[in-house]
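Page 47, continued from p. 46.
Same chain as before, 283 aa.
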Amino acid sequence: MILFGSFNTLRVQRITGPGAFLGEPGERDGLEVLLPGRQVPEGCKAGDELEAFVYHDSEDRPVATLQRPKAQVGEVASLCIVATNDAGVFLDWGLPKDLLLPYNEIPRELKLNLEPGQYLLVMVFQDDTGRVAASARLDDFLAKEAGGFNEGDKVGVVISNRTDLGWRVVVNNRYWGLLHASEVFGKVKAGTRHDGWIKTLRADRRLNIALVPPGPARIDPAAQKILDRLQAEGGFMAVGDKTPPEAIYTLFGVSKKVFKQAIGSLFKAHRIVIEAGGIRLVK
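Result:
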C-alpha cells in the first residue's frame, strides 16, 4: 500500500507527456501516482524503481516528488507560517503545496498572534480522511514515559520549550524528554535538531537527555577536537584551568569538565604538554 506523507519505493509503470506514473512493485492494478516530468531522472524508463515522497497536490490529486520535505508523517519539525485563512494555518514544509495546520490542531495558548514568519513546532500526521496535515498538539502524539532505552543510547532530539529546569525536548519523534540546564554549555534554540544521549533512566520512566556522550565515551571525541584545533592553531593554545567554561564550549563544543578530562587523557598519552600559559602539541 502506498503511504501518503512518506517515502515509498515505487516502480515506474509508464512514462507519458505529463511525467512518470509510479506504482507499487508487483502491483498492476493498484494506485498510480504521477511524478511530474520535470522531476523524472534523465534516462529513467519503465521498470525502474524510485524512492518517492507521496502527497496530495493543490488540486487534491495524488502526486509523487523526489524532493525531500522538512518532515514526513510521524516526525516533529519546526515549520514557518506562510499564510492563514479560514481553514487554518499554512506551513512551509519544503514542497510546492504548503502543509495545513487546522485551527483545531492548535492549542488555545498558541492561537494568539499567529503571523507569517513565525515558527511552530508541529507533528506531521495523517488525519481521518487520509490527508497529511500538521498538529501543534504534541501531547496528543508524544509519550511522557519511555521504555526500551539504556543509559548512553544515542537518540535524535528536537528542542521544544524552556522550563524552570532547562528545556523540554522531543526524543526520536515519540517521547518527551528533559534537557537540564546544567547540560547546556552553549546556546540552544527552539526547533533545532541535535544528536542526544540518554543520560539517566528515571524511576518514573521519563528521560533525562544530554547533548554530549555520557561517561568515558565523552573523552575520545573531545580529545580529537582538541588535537584538531591545536593543529589548526599551530600547535599551541592559551587555554587551561582558568579559561571560562563559555570560552571552552565556543572553542571545542564541550563542557569545561569534559575538556579537563580530555586534556588529562591526552597528557597521559604524551600527545600534549600542559604549560603555565596553555597546552601544546607534542611533536
